[in-house]
Design a protein that fits this description.
Blueprint: H1 14-65, H2 75-78, E1 101-103, E2 112-114
Antiparallel strand pairs: 1-2
Length: 127
Amino acid sequence: MKTIKISRKAGFTLVEIMIVVAIIGLLAAIAIPNFIKARATSQQTACLNNLRQFDAAIDMWALGTGQSTGAPIDVAAALSSNYLKMNINNSVPACPASGTYSVGNVGDTPQVSCSLSTLVLSPHKPQ
């Protein structure tokens, strides 16, 4: 009797591997811009919430100390733990997109602003 040996090598062909790599590349090309957009949107939301909290703290400070409209804001007093909830490090929350906050006078619109809000493609501009 003759025995026939079937030699079959286990593994993938080069074409199969190339197809899998192309599919993974296509999925990455679709997903990465969405992740970047989601990050920018979350940073914008966090910064706007910080600005809202700062504005409320300044209003409470101004009412509590009898400040009039146009008076300069004492940043250390207005943004202290008496009027503002501090972050986990017990300090004033910073802009998540590495912007800087600037404070105007009591009653200004806005009383607090972020340095990134004036950029044309700012992550802090409502869309």
